[in-house]
């Protein structure tokens, strides 16, 4: 029997990898596709705030994923910390976020982790998608 509040998957899940990263990816393209006043190509603050609002969807997850408040707390803290990585470490901080997310996506599902850690993983995916989408949008447009 697994401890209470710990999530263990039977097989590698697809939604925690695809949904957060694709939402960040799409948000990164918005300033390049549409003329919206508060979306600018150089500022990621509004997309990060939208990711924080989208993170509230963690409360809609089934109870089997553990304490939803703890899950969102991990997501919230992860978004803030990984957003600040860009300021402290520049492009290297972005690379660290993306590589950490890739590594966690390969191995996290195999182990028992609390919802807070799963929230951090979801935040890593969101910010990785935002950074990768921003780099691609800048080079395409």
Model description:
Helix 1 packs antiparallel against helix 2, helix 3 runs antiparallel to helix 4 and helix 4 crosses helix 5 (115-140). The protein has helices at 15-33, 45-54, 68-89, 91-107, 115-140. The chain has one domain (15-33, 40-140). With 141 residues, the chain is mainly α. The chain has 5 helices and no strands. The longest helix has 26 residues, at 115-140.
Topology of this protein?
Elements: H1 15-33, H2 45-54, H3 68-89, H4 91-107, H5 115-140
Helix pairs in contact: 1-2, 1-5, 3-4, 3-5, 4-5
Low-pLDDT regions: none
Query: What is the distance, rounded to the nearest whole angstrom, between the alpha carbons of the first and last residues?
Result: 52 Å
Helix-strand topology string: HHHHH
Indicate the proportion of strand residues.
Answer: under 5%
Counting DSSP E segments of at least 2 residues, the number of strands comes to 0
Output the number of helix runs: 5
| Main beta-sheet annotation | none
Count of discrete domains: 1
Helix proportion range: 55-70%
Shape: globular
Structural class: mainly alpha
Q: Would you tell me the overall average pLDDT? A: 88
What is the rounded Rg? Answer: 15 Å
């Amino acid at each position: 029997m697994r401890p209470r509040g710990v999530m263990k998957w039977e097989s590698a899940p697809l939604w925690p990898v695809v949904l957060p990263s694709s939402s960040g990816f799409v948000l990164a393209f918005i300033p390049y596709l549409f003329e919206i006043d508060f979306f600018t190509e150089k500022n990621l603050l509004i997309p990060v705030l939208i990711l924080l609002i989208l993170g509230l969807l963690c409360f809609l997850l089934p109870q089997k994923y553990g304490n939803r408040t703890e899950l969102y707390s991990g997501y919230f803290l992860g978004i803030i910390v990984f957003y600040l990585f860009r300021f402290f470490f520049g492009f290297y901080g972005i690379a660290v976020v993306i590589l950490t997310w890739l590594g966690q996506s390969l191995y996290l599902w195999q182990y028992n982790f609390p919802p807070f850690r799963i929230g951090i993983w979801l935040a890593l995916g969101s910010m990785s998608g935002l950074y990768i989408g921003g780099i691609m949008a800048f080079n395409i447009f």
